[in-house]
Amino acid sequence: MHDQARPLAVLRGIHRTLSPDGVYLAQDIKGSGHHHGDLDHPLGPLLYAVSCMHCMTVSLAQGGEGLGTMWGRKKALEYFRNAGFSDVRVNELSHDFQNYYYVCRP
Length: 106
Fold this sequence. Notes:
Radius of gyration: 14 Å
Number of helices: 3
Shape: globular
CATH superfamily: Vaccinia Virus protein VP39
Number of strands: 3
Oligomer: single chain
CATH architecture: 3-Layer(aba) Sandwich
Distance between the termini: 18 Å
Order of helices and strands: HEHHEE
Strand content: 15-25%
Largest sheet: 3 strands, antiparallel
Structural class: alpha+beta
């Protein structure tokens, strides 16, 4: 979602198309949303570079929000809830230090 021009519109569309017992699984980078909160992230510098050189520019070129790769868990949860998801759970996998897994239900 972080490189979409209108991520909230995309998430609302996903929410709208799910059946009442449906599930949307989103995998996204495990960032804090603030560079000072990502100083210890093993790939932090690389991910911020990718964010500036690709993700943000893809979004901004379309007049979008430019959230970027490291938009963070707090912002992601805000977007999922604003899209209408009432049950959002965040999971981490022991073998994956880079991503959060958001399990979103209508």
